[in-house]
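quick one, 450 residues, struct below
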Amino acid sequence: MTADAVEGVAVAVVGGGAAGILAAIRLLDVLGAADRVEVVEPQGLLGAGIAFATDDPHHLLNIPAMMMSAYEDQPEHFASYLSQQGKGTATTFAPRFVYGEYLRATLARAVQSSAAAFTHRQQTAVRLQPGTGGDGVAIELDNGETVSTDFAVLAVGWGSPNPVRAPSRQVAIKPWSREGDLAISRYAGASQPIVVIGTGLSAADIVGTLARQGCTSIVAVSPSGTFPAAHPASLQWPDTGPTVARIAEASRASDLIHRTRAACAGGEQWQRVIDGLRGYLPAVWNNMSEVERARLVRHVLPVWEKLRHRMPPHTTRTIAELQANDTLSILRGRVTEHDAGRLVVETPSGPKTLNPVLTIDCTGWSRDPRRMGRGLISQLIDDGFATAHGPAIDLTADGRVAGPLHTRLWATGLLIGDQVWENSGVALLRRQAARVADSLREAAHAEGAR
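---
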């Protein structure tokens, strides 16, 4: 706890995934005696969310432990946890559920060392409004109760799934859901074709799961026709030195590309450069005009997603082996029809028809803020307490939600959308958590909330 910690403040964090738990940890660090932090999250298991809820030990983090610390000033924190648990070292790509365990253990230690109280309210927030008399925030829950708090932090995660875009479609199942798990189990050992739409990290995990369950004919479909790049055999810390700092000074998308290529051509390992740039993303974004930001998203982001979100070595080997033994084939193209088990894929050589027994849609979840938070954000916008443009709600520079509740309401995680280009990596989530906690503490001091 800091020496100038505020007292008598009640803060509600809405959302109990990684973003919410990292925010709660930082708030517990700065709040003091008589203060209270409450996480409002319907799931009983905090820190899981979609990313870390899987219990499959083959579903691995795509980042080594040395880059996954909950604390920016303690980069070895997660690696030390793994070592103490006998589960790995700094270069380990740990199972995703282990990271969820780490977040819960870190939260428990923060609760133990903080003078502030902590509670987990296992309900869904359905509406936020100004508190009685305009003071604080009133959070309505799905059980009819209302939580009154001085301040609130929105840390809700992915919205409802994106459907497969096709003129006619039978919606494919999504992974990481009970429906998806049951369907995959039902078709264990199938020799008939199973189609996985997408070739990202989720698709790679699902392909591996299907193969381990004995499925022998898997087709992955995506516009790129490629899975993410692999991590290098010899892992190194990200480059955060002057080379990457110079790249981050670029004010145009084309200049960013040119400087990055020049650094790699000069002998820098491209993976270290990309990883190092992540810490500069907010600055890179702020350096650019709206026109250049649009170019960045249109031309750079698709390549960035493939280079940044790399597969762990084990997953890379699995995908290669499945291709080599003809269990997995990759089809480059876009789904144009999906109806009653029939898919038409528009490929560079023309349309191709597939007749799978099961289609699994790994194209991702919605980044439309209106579809996040189980309807909460849509309600907040409709009530006039927030506005949204594209994949982001409008925020002030210190993370407050722009609008009538800006003195009481902050946001972190996916809700900040494209305001910092990338918003879901742990390195950025922990930085956002620190920003929100510091801003909230200053706001409480400014108005004498004790």
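The chain has three domains: 10-160+367-449, 163-230+310-363, 242-297.
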